[in-house]
């Protein structure tokens, strides 16, 4: 059985737990499934740690790093008029090469918002056109979170541009029979405070800086943890608007005071109905 389930939501809403649980539950229903957690470098559509190079960039790299030329040539993939190098898949490469490639990272490097959207859209287009594997793919963050974060937090693009881009990605994936589960935890402050308490100070410093010291945060004068919370409130509002407009089966789950097993059963019923699974036995994950 083929299919695509995408799990979205703000940090701390339970995306990873839900996506992994869905994969396990599907396996228990006799449906082969593969879970791609956030950050997995072989994601079939997203560009986690992928450099985007022009022809001139690639030629310059080959000249400046001759000892790594063979690695670059073997790894470079053509995408229109640019080259993609999935450096996250090669931890064995020299630090000098990986550092230079990180400067051209699709999410965090010197890539324009227009080029970022173009290469991501092409990736989703190719994904939609490939033959689907004989299993269900469960993805996190790739349709809503990552585009919204990159285009809004980093590039401060108009909301209309963000919405149009995401709708285009969803259309491109249509042949894969996608369905979306969005976990809504309500006002994000409490969830973000809990995440900050559970994670390292370095993580907190990094996410605050990302959301306040560039793009939208810089334009609107956001500062510190309160600024991070304010951005996430804005992001939640935008994401809820976007998911309601997408032309694909969507379930918005309120992450409220109900026990998790109640929410689990709601998600299982939705996914089971979408995939045509007859036996939807309720079992929490």
TrEMBL record:
Domain of life: Bacteria
InterPro entries xref list: P-loop_NTPase
Protein's name in the database: Thymidylate kinase
Classification of source organism: Bacteria, Bacillati, Actinomycetota, Actinomycetes, Micrococcales
């Amino acid at each position: 059985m083929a299919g695509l389930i995408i799990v979205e939501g703000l940090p701390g809403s339970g995306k990873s737990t839900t996506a992994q649980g869905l994969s396990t539950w599907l396996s228990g229903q006799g449906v082969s499934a593969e879970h791609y957690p956030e950050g997995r470098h072989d994601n079939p559509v997203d560009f986690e740690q992928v450099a985007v190079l022009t022809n001139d960039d690639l030629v310059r790299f080959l000249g400046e790093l001759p000892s790594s030329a063979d690695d670059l040539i073997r790894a470079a993939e053509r995408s229109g008029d640019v080259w993609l190098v999935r450096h996250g898949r090669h931890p064995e490469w020299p630090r000098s090469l990986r550092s230079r490639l990180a400067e051209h990272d699709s999410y965090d490097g010197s890539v324009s918002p227009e080029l970022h959207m173009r290469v991501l859209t092409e990736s989703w287009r190719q994904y939609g056109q490939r033959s689907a594997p004989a299993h269900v793919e469960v993805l996190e963050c790739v349709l809503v979170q990552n585009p919204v974060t990159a285009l809004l937090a980093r590039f401060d693009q108009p909301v209309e541009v963000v919405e149009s881009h995401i709708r285009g990605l969803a259309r491109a994936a249509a042949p894969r029979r996608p369905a979306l589960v969005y976990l809504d935890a309500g006002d994000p402050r409490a969830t973000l405070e809990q995440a900050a308490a559970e994670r390292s100070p370095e993580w907190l410093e990094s996410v605050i800086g990302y959301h306040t010291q560039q793009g939208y945060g810089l334009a609107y004068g956001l500062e510190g943890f309160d600024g991070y919370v304010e951005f996430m409130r804005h992001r939640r509002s935008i994401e809820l608007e976007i998911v309601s407009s997408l032309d694909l089966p969507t379930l918005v789950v309120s992450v409220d005071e109900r026990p998790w097993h109640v929410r689990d059963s709601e998600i299982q019923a939705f996914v089971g109905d979408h995939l045509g699974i007859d036996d939807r036995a309720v079992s929490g994950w």
